[in-house]
User: Which sequence fits this backbone?
């Protein structure tokens, strides 16, 4: 098949519905839940906006806003520079991510049943090995997306903050190391952070941030609709804003799925 034919077939698939585009992005608004750090740490900003004009004397024929948002608010991309372990890597900021890495295949590991009964569920290396026994090896350069169905929870249940911190699922150290061993592009999750809510108790603390970013890998957070993806075969487009020296960015994440 010629390379021209590949893109012609892709366009045909989009036009005929042979390929579905799934939106993996949560709505971004003033209600978007935030990661909250303990004192005295700085906090990420909520999304907020001010109206510039709405077909009125401030702009007779046009409607627009200015908005403020944290780099790590809502569905967003984590670049390696976000964590101290990745601070000296080359091309470690959102503007320097090679464009070819903004598009990649996805392997979806479904642990939604386990998470339904255990908010502190930890993905372990053994779960990854079991997934591979069923679906084949996780290839280098792919996104691993952790389906927890957490994005279906609302408000307080989604953030699940208690006196001792957040209780949300995520990978443990062995799982993170297994992903690095497979040379994945990064890890995508439905929760606010790639680490579990109680990751300060793990060794090292926050293994997903510490180890993945130290290895030059990326993170995607606050995804949804992972239940609409097959275990393998989807292609994900995850492109952060090209913020100079940015550590992360809100973005639209899309997946192409063959029917
Ligand atoms: Mn982040």
Assistant:
């Amino acid at each position: 098949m010629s390379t021209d034919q590949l893109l012609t077939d892709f366009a045909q698939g989009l036009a005929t519905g042979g390929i579905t585009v799934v939106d993996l992005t949560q709505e971004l608004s003033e209600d978007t839940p935030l990661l909250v750090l303990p004192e005295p740490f700085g906090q990420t900003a909520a999304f907020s906006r001010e109206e510039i004009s709405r077909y009125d004397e401030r702009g007779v024929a046009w409607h627009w806003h200015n908005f403020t948002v944290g780099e790590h608010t809502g569905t967003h991309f984590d670049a390696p520079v976000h964590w101290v372990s990745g601070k000296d890597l080359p091309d470690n900021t959102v503007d320097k991510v090679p464009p070819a890495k903004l598009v990649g295949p996805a392997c979806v590991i479904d642990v939604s049943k386990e998470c339904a009964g255990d908010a502190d569920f930890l993905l372990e290396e053994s779960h990854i090995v079991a997934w591979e026994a069923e679906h084949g090896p996780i290839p280098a350069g792919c996104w691993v997306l952790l389906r927890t169905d957490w994005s279906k929870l609302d408000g307080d249940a989604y953030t699940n903050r208690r006196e001792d911190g957040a209780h949300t699922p995520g990978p443990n150290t062995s799982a993170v190391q297994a992903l690095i061993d497979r040379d994945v592009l990064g890890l995508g999750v439905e929760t606010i952070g790639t680490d579990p809510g109680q990751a300060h108790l793990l060794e090292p603390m926050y293994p997903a941030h510490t180890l993945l970013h130290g290895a030059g890998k990326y993170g995607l957070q606050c995804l949804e609709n992972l239940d609409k993806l097959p275990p393998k075969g989807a292609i994900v487009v995850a492109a952060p804003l090209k913020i100079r020296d940015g550590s992360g960015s809100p973005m639209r994440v899309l997946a192409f799925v063959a029917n």
